[in-house]
Amino acid sequence: MEFLDRTTYRMYSDTSLQEMARYNPTAELAIVLAERLDELQAEFDEKVEKYVDKIEDLEREVRILTEDLHIAEGARA
Q1: What angle do CA 51, 39, 19 make, to 5 degrees?
Q2: pTM beyond cutoff 0.85
């Protein structure tokens, strides 16, 4: 099998790259796989950050509703 350069490896799908790495690992292939991993990690980090922000918003909303509930219960007493 011929050795490919980074530009050529970048044209392959993740699955194809994994197959190539399994049977014919090269430094260039490792670099391309590391780039893909960095991209996926960045996407994952962005999604996690959005979920954390949403959770914090919901926790604030729960605190406000809980306070309102205590105030309403106090007014009835």
Answers
A1: 120
A2: no
Predicted confidence at residue 2, as pLDDT, reads 60
User: HSE (CB half, 13 Å, CA atoms) of 55?
Assistant: 6
Grade residue 12 by pLDDT with cuts at 50, 70 and 90.
Answer: very high
Tokens (6 digits) for 5: 């350069």
In terms of Cβ atoms closer than 10 Å to its own Cβ (0-12, 13-18, 19+), residue 10 is middle
50: number of Cβ within 10 Å: 10
The Cα 42–Cα 55 span in angstroms is 20
CA distance 74 to 22: 67
- Residue 1: pLDDT over 60: no
Question: CA-to-CA distance for 21 and 9, rounded, in angstroms?
Answer: 11
